[in-house]
Write a structure and sequence with these properties.
Layout: H1 2-19, H2 24-49
Length: 50
């Protein structure tokens, strides 16, 4: 489920960057936030497993 969310987020991000070309900084910021959330979720999953 989480991997699907990350993939969907990246797809949406690519779409947003192509649509909002005048504001690439905002899309880049959203991408960084999404990436951090994905990494945080994956780290939490690994910690729960061990």
């Amino acid at each position: 489920m989480k991997v699907g969310f990350c993939a969907a987020w990246r797809l949406a991000l690519v779409g947003c960057t192509q649509i909002s070309q005048p504001q690439p900084s905002r899309a880049g910021h959203l991408g960084m936030v999404g990436l951090l959330v994905c990494i945080y979720d994956n780290v939490r999953k690994v910690e729960k497993r061990s």
